[in-house]
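Teaching assistant here, posting this on the class forum so everyone can see the example we discussed in section. The complex has two components, and the goal was to see what a joint structure prediction looks like when all of them are supplied at once.
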Amino acid sequence: AQSVTQLDSQVPVFEEAPVELRCNYSSSVSVYLFWYVQYPNQGLQLLLKYLSGSTLVKGINGFEAEFNKSQTSFHLRKPSVHISDTAEYFCAVSPILTGGGNKLTFGTGTQLKVEL
Amino acid sequence: KAGVTQTPRYLIKTRGQQVTLSCSPISGHRSVSWYQQTPGQGLQFLFEYFSETQRNKGNFPGRFSGRQFSNSRSEMNVSTLELGDSALYLCASSHEGYYEQYFGPGTRLTVT
């Protein structure tokens, strides 16, 4: 089984400041890792993913994340946030299934609020 | 390419009724997954369909079922609705062999 922990339920930050949203996971099997963003009354949009290779992955809208296998973490960062980044962010893992397919386990989400 | 579409967007049902939600995946995507989002339980995986067969399943009671058609469109059905089934139901599609999923806008189900 997999579990995902997002320690911060809310993160307030001023516009143009840097931000880090934390994500830790546990799994008995290898997993792929994802960050999704959800704007009010909308579905989820994929920000970035880690499947293999370089542990620093870049995504859309200037976001990046670093996979740390020893700490089982996948923290999301942005060097300078914009008011439009205000949204809820979800970290998720998907086990590498022998039968193939997808089965995402999500964290509880972090509400990022960007203030002027 | 058109994104994942879900119909209807909003639905109000009465306890004890049943409901069917529909999802059309991105063209070329043959895997369709369903998730339930509630304030209390967060985002939870329901099931995944691929080539008209349920490939993976979450931990939901048998009242939740789904199916997939030959054109990859999928439906999920909830029978004997309970108040706790009120949620945003999200559908996601992916290309076989690729692990990123693309989500639709969801269907907001309210059970009264």
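For the discussion questions: The two ends of chain A are 41 Å apart (CA to CA). The first strand of chain A starts at residue 2 and ends at 5. Think about how each of these relates to the inputs above.
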